[in-house]
Amino acid sequence: MVELTSAAIDSLRKDDIAKMVFSQQTIDAFGMVAGNAVSTSVQAAYSETSQSIIIPSFERATRALMHQVNDAFQNGKGELLGQLYTQLDQVTQNQFEARFPNVFELQQMTDSFQSLAERMLSHVQATIKMHLESELQSSLLGMQEMIAHYLMEAVGEEVSMAVKEMGNRISDSVLNATRSESKPVIQVMPNLQEPKPQILQLLQQGQINTAFDMALSACNLEMVMFVCETVNFSEVFEKTPCPLQQRVLLSLIQQLSIDLGSNTELKNKFIQGAMVNLDKSDPVVQDHLTSVIFALVKHVEAFVEKHPRMIHQFKMVRLAAKALII
C-alpha cells in the first residue's frame, strides 16, 4: 500500500469536508434548522407589523377613499338635482307663461304698484311730519307770546292796583294827620351796619344791579329786604331792558321766597317783577330756572296752605311759574 503523506491526508480531509458541507443533505439540514429558528421571529414581526402599521394604514386609506367617493357622489347628485330642478322650474314657468301670458305682466304691475305706494307713503309721512312740526312750533310760539303778554298785562294791573291802593292809603293818612293837626312822626332808621352804607351809596349812584348783587351775595335776607325797601320798584322792573342781570333775578326770586311770612306784599311784588323779566334764552336761566321755580312753588304752596286768605295775592306768581317751566 502506498503511504499517504500528511499533506495528502489534509487535502483529502478538506475535500471530504467541502463535499459534506456543500452536499444537498447538509444544505437542507442547515436550511431546516435556520428556517425553524427564524420562522417564529418572522411570524411575530409580521403579525406585529400587520396589526400596528399595515392594517391601520389600509383602513385609513380605505376610509379616505370611501369619503372621497361619497363626497364626489353627493356633489354630483346635488349638482344633478340642482340642474334638474332649475330645468323643471324653467319648463314649468315657460308652460305657465304660455298658458297664462298676462299673469307675468300682472305680477310686474303689482310689484311696481307696491313700490310706488311705499314711496308715496314715505313722502306723505315726511310731509305730514314736517307740517305738524311747523304747526306745532308756530302754535307754541304763539302760546308763549300770548302767555307772556297776558302775564305782563296781569302783573301790570296788579302793580297798578297795588300802587293805587298804596296811594289811597297815603292820602288817607295825610288827610287824617291834617285834620287832627298832629305833628308828623319822623322815624329814624337805626344805624346801618356794613355793607348797608355801600349798598345805599350804590343805589344813590344808580348802580342798581351792583347793589342787589352785593346784598344777595351776603346771603342775608334782611340786607336784601333793605334794598327792596329802598329802591324804586319802577326803576328796577319797568325799564327796558331791566337793569338787573339774569343771575341776579334768579337769586332774588330764590332768597325772597324762602320766608314769605314777613313783608309778604313787598316780597310778592318783587318776585313777580323778577319773574316777568326773566329771559328763558339766557344760558344761566336755562341751567337754573327749573330748580329755582320749583323751590318757589314749594314755598308758595306751603305759605298758602298756612294762610288760605293769601291765595289770591300769589295767583300771578303761580301762573307765571307754570308759564316759565312749560
UniProtKB/TrEMBL annotation:
Protein name: Enhancer of mRNA-decapping protein 4 C-terminal domain-containing protein
Repeat recorded as keyword: yes
Keywords linked to the UniProt accession: Cytoplasm, Repeat, WD repeat
Organism: Sinanodonta woodiana (Chinese pond mussel)
UniProt cross-references to PANTHER family, sorted A to Z: ENHANCER OF MRNA-DECAPPING PROTEIN 4
Coiled-coil spans in chain: none
Pfam family, one: EDC4_C
Main location: cytoplasm
Subcellular location: Cytoplasm
Enhancer of mRNA-decapping protein 4 C-terminal domain residues: 199-313
A Gene Ontology term for the protein's cellular component: cytoplasm
